[in-house]
Amino acid sequence: QVQLVQSGAEVKKPGASVKISCKASGYTFTSYYMHWVRQAPGQGLEWMGIINPSGGSTSYAQKFQGRVTMTRDTPTSTVYMELSSLRSEDTALYYCARTYGDSSGYLGDWGQGTLVTVSS
Amino acid sequence: SYELTQSPSVSVSPGQTASITCSGDKLGDKYACWYQQKPGQSPVLVIYQDTKRPSGIPERFSGSNSGNTATLTISGTQAMDEADYYCQSWDSSTVVFGGGTKLTVL
User: Fold this and answer.
1) Chain B: which residues have CB within 8 Å of chain A?
2) A interface mutation test: which of B5, B42, B84 has the most A CBs within 10 A?
3) Are A43 and A49 in contact (CB under 8 A)?
4) A76: which residues sit within 8 A by CB, 6+ positions away?
5) Is A62 on the interface with B (CB under 8 A)?
6) pLDDT tens-digit profile of A27-83?
């Protein structure tokens, strides 16, 4: 079965960077795009961007342009999301999510989430 | 930037039909999907491509999309359906989520 296992919780100071991993298993890693979505405490879902694990191409939400970098490591079936210049507003649960079916626009399988806390 | 608007909350009695709406400019010209999120859990895709259900999603979940409004309908609502529901579409290769609707089953 499809599994997306994310790295553990992080506590960072303002201005620092965080890099979260998402290890995929149970399917052909390069056949499905991966999205990153975050959710601030008590708030809704916010899309951050998408990566194509096959070629590594990315597309980021305008809000995060210049601060986010998504990469992948094909041999380990792992995607990474790095967010820099952290501020308190970046405190959130960060999810990776695999696309569903033939379209890259639907998020079918989700990781368990990684809590990032930004605090001085 | 493109926006999707949802009502913050909807209440329904057990066994009745719940309708959750999502509005956006010419949303009917795009595809919409819906996610269910229960407290402490990751979201689950319940409707995609306006009307389709992923495998394992009960038949009581259905969707429609026309004009400026997409609708998620839950027929014969059960207590287990109490959750937050998010609509989602995409515009210019950007994924957009609605703000979410909390469904309460009274």
Assistant:
1) 1, 31, 33, 35, 37, 42-45, 48-49, 54, 86, 88-90, 93-100
2) B42
3) no
4) A23
5) yes
6) 999 999 999 999 999 999 999 999 999 999 999 999 999 999 999 999 999 999 999
